[in-house]
Design goal:
alpha+beta; globular
Length: 283
């Protein structure tokens, strides 16, 4: 599938150009993140769960400029229905905002020729280890454009807006398209059905006590993906395993879900399938 490219040209731009590029990017990305977290907040309050308003985590360097946003849940989540509502609300709302931005951003981006990626670029730890053992060249990061991998939804958006891309050409995304791509990627990160991520909440809503066992298996799968496919997933596994945790707090009530909530849970898993990127970044 075609990848997306974001040229690292900020050094060559003047201040006015940087502001013009930065404002649409910031507005688009912060809108996605804000709606995501506010949806969590509203769902929590509906179930009388104590939660804070969103906190944003700025980072003063590229390629993203933020570590996202979060709300703090300060009281126990009482039931499977509540945990599913709270977990699914954010990703679904963020996806709804990101989707039109993605299609508009892609439609207004340009298709340009691109050089082939170096065969010495490595994007997984095991491939790097094998090359080191064999004494072959290792070049994990190189200067030049950052290539963002395709999810199902970004592949579809590129095909709808530009058709099949010619050989040795790629989509050079504008700031809004880049923000929308990141919004979709953040949605996938949060929807992984592990621990206390949004996807972990959805998993517990759908499967109750069985969710812990499923979550552990998926954690092992994420580790394997990180070792074989992408450093990004390895870093995310380390963060989940040693900081966020893979266990979910027990719920006071195991009341069964009604049909609308089961449909909401399935919709969240479908969004995960649409937004998941096997190899998110290549440099």
């Amino acid at each position: 599938p075609a990848a997306l490219q974001k040229a690292r040209s900020g050094i060559e731009l003047g201040l006015t150009d940087l502001v013009r590029a930065g404002l649409p990017y910031c507005a688009a990305l912060l809108s996605i993140l804000l709606v995501h977290e506010l949806a969590h907040f509203v769902a929590a309050r509906r179930h009388r769960v104590d939660a804070t308003l969103p906190y944003f985590l700025p980072v003063p360097f590229e390629p993203i400029g933020t570590l996202g946003a979060f709300i703090r849940i300060r009281s126990p989540i009482p039931s499977r229905r509540a945990v599913l509502d709270i977990g699914a609300a954010g990703p679904v709302a963020g996806f709804v905002v990101a989707l039109p931005l993605l299609f508009w951003g892609f439609a207004t981006s340009e298709v340009k020729p691109v050089p082939p990626l170096s065969s010495t670029q490595l994007h997984s730890p095991l491939v790097m280890l094998v090359r080191l053992i064999e004494g072959r060249p290792v070049q994990p990061f190189v200067e030049g454009p950052m290539v963002m991998g395709d999810s199902a939804i970004t592949w579809l958006a590129a095909r709808v807006t530009h058709g099949a891309l010619p050989a040795h050409h790629d989509l050079h995304v504008n700031p809004v398209a880049y923000a929308a791509w990141l919004g979709m990627f953040v949605t996938a990160l949060n929807l992984l059905p592990i621990g206390q991520l949004d996807g972990g909440h959805v998993l517990h809503g759908l499967f109750g006590r069985r969710a812990d066992r499923i979550s552990r298996l998926l954690s092992h799968a994420l580790l394997a993906l990180g070792l074989f496919a992408s450093w990004t997933w390895l870093a995310w596994w380390v963060l989940i395993r040693f900081v966020l945790g893979t266990r979910h707090p027990p719920l006071a009530s195991q009341e069964p879900l009604d049909s609308p909530r089961r449909a909401l849970g399935v919709a969240a898993l479908v969004i995960l399938a649409l937004t998941f990127v096997p190899v998110p970044f290549r440099f």
